[in-house]
Amino acid sequence: MLIDTHCHFPHEKYDQELDQIIKDSQNNDVKKLIVIGTSIENSKKTLEVVNKYNNLFATIGVYPHEDKNLSLSDIQKELENLYRKNKSKIVGIGECGIDLGNWEDGRNPDEQVELFKLQTGFAIEHDLPLVLHNRNGDKYIEEIFSKYAVFKGNKLRGVAHCYVGNWNFAKYLIDFGFYISFSGIITFPKVSSDLIDTIKKIPKERILVETDSPYLAPQKYRGQINYPKYVKIVAEAVAQIRNASYDEIAQITYKNAHNLFNIKYD
Ligand SMILES: [Zn+2]
């Protein structure tokens, strides 16, 4: 069995009913889905969906370039409000982090740091894992994490989602208590040797798999809509790279996801 630890619902890219997508996932061994919020509005929609299904869970959060019209204190209030009302379904904070890929129309790095600090603080205060989005933001993240390691007795934990970096930064995150999640990118023919090296070296207790659907379909479906059921392809790729069996990777990543997101194991 598998968990897709990172997908986006509802999404205008989907041409099928959510019911069907969720049913398809279950028929393909993907038992549970973690649906990721990207803005306050999107987090609300995400919660509406997950509240209808026993096997779906949500994270709430604001992507580095979303909700530019809201003040930080508004964002804080909205997150508090959503969390208070939906505690049993919210299993993490994010996706949030640093994205220096293209910020001309988004937040500049300083603004991103402030938004990320807010959510890091929120995660640690409520003892929720952080779903980390990182594009070229290693040095900012290290700086923020060094200040937020422990707060009121809670230790910051989380997952580096859709990891494509090198082993050095992965090792830093793992030592810090993070999990590393891989997506369909690892099935692309031009996947970097650094990333392959990282996949091989990670302790198996820290690996997660995800689709980031509807984005980033694996090679076999590249350019098409991605679905949570394809997380199986990601798990198969991890298994192949690590010279492990699919069953072993499925089993350990299923367990890891339950551990990190504090979901009842069944
Ligand atoms: Zn995402």
UniProtKB/TrEMBL annotation:
It comes from the Bacteria. Keywords: Hydrolase, Metal-binding. A divalent metal cation 2 binds at residues 133, 161. InterPro entries: DNase_TatD-rel_CS, Metal_Hydrolase, TatD-like, TatD/YcfH-like. It holds the Pfam family TatD_DNase. CDD domains: TatD_DNAse. The keyword Metal-binding applies. A divalent metal cation 1 binds at residues 6, 8, 95, 212. One of its GO terms (molecular function) is DNA nuclease activity. PROSITE patterns: TATD_3. This is Hydrolase TatD. It comes from candidate division WWE3 bacterium RBG_19FT_COMBO_34_6.
